[in-house]
Amino acid sequence: MKALLRSKGLWRLVDGKEKRPTTGDKEQESWDIKQDKAAGKLMLNLMPDQRVHIRASQDDPTAAWKALATLFVQQKASTRFVAYEEFFSIRTKLDNVGTSGASCVLATATIGIRVDSKQLGCGWC
Question: Would you state the pLDDT for residue 124?
Fold first, then answer.
């Protein structure tokens, strides 16, 4: 998401480094348009069931980003261990059930762990 916002020239606004100009109607209008674009990109690039987390701040991309970071950014090492435990339990389930490569990638992407396809060992990747 951060890369998408950067590629569109919107990240500095979302990050809070680019503040709304206090003077100049054209500059303020331009900033407002960028803010709307950033808010739209955030909302449209979230899964529908995740949009509820930023609905209250959907018009403020900076506040929306902070809300998402609070929910999804791992703050402690213990959460990383939980993520690895979840990954290995998914791997065990995949080994037992059998699945396609797309499901393997989806399973690892769901908890945000990057792995080499050889590490999955599901036979499909």
Answer: 47
